[in-house]
Amino acid sequence: MEFIDYYKILEIDKHATEEQIRKAYRKMARKYHPDLNPNNKEAETKFKQANEANEVLSDPEKRKKYDKYGKDWKHADEFEKAGYGQSSGTRRPGGQDSSQYYESDGDFSDFFSSMFGSGRQQSSQGRFRGQDFNAELNLKLSDVYTSQKQTLTVNGKQIRLTIPAGIENGQTIRIAGHGGEGMNGGPKGDLYLTFVITNDTPFKRDGNHLFSDVEVDLYTAVLGGEITVDTFDGKVKLKVAPETQNDTRVKLKGKGFPVYKKEGQSGDLFITYKVRIPRNLSEKEKELFVELSKLSKNGKQ
Length: 301
Known about the structure:
Helix content: 25-40%
CATH topology of the domain at 204-300: HSP40/DNAj peptide-binding domain
Number of strands: 11
CATH class of the domain at 204-300: Mainly Beta
Strand content: 15-25%
C-alpha cells in the first residue's frame, strides 16, 4: 500500500495543533467539495483524501499510531502486541530479541506480510481486513442544530446512529465494523459516512458562528430604538444605539451553532445592520429633510 502523507494533504506540519488541523480540514473540504466541483474526479479524490486525513489526525490515538507506524498504522495493535517498535529493538514472535531496529516512521510492510500473510500465494492462509465502504447522508442545516437519531440502510443492513448537533458540511465520520466482510476470519471493514448539508435557513454558517443581515429603518438608526431579530431558535429584542451607522455589526453571544460533541456550547450570532433609506416621501417629509440638511450644513460652518 502506497504511503499517504496526511500532513501534506492538509498542508500542515507534523507539529500542528488540533485547532490548526480542524481549520485546514475545513478549508480543504470547502475547496474540493463535490457540490462545488461537479464531475471533477481530481477534486473528488482530494476531497476523500482530506476526509481520510482528518479522520486520522483529528483523533489523538490514531495520530499517534500514524506518526509511529506510517502507512501500517492500522495494524499498530498487532505490532505492539508482538513487541515491535520498542525503543530497545524489536522482538520476533517467539520472544527472541532481534538486532534489527525499526524507526518510528519506517516501513513495516515486510514484517506484517511475514506475520499475517500477504500476496496471492498466502491469501488462503492470511487474515485480511474487509473493504471500507463510503456513503453520503444528505441533511438540512436545520436538522443538525440539535442531535438526532437516524436509521441507515447499507448493503441491506440497518444501522442506527445518533448524529451529534453541530456536524459540518463535508465532515466524515467512521462507523467501525460496518464495512465489507473480512477474509479468512479477518475483521470487517469500516463505513465512512460523509455529510452533505444544505442550508435551508436565512443564516450563513461559518464553523460554529452564524451571520445574518437585518434591516433597520433610517429613523431608528438615527434616533435609536428597539428592534426584533430572528435567531436560530426564536426571536430576541435588540436595542439600537442612536446614530448607528450602516453595516454596524453586533454580536449575540451563544446564539450561534452548537459546537460538535460539546454539549451546552455554541458559537455566536453576528448581526449586521443594513440601514434602509425611506422611499415615496411626502412633500412634507421632503421639506423636513431639506430643513434638516440646512441645519446640518450650518452646524458645520
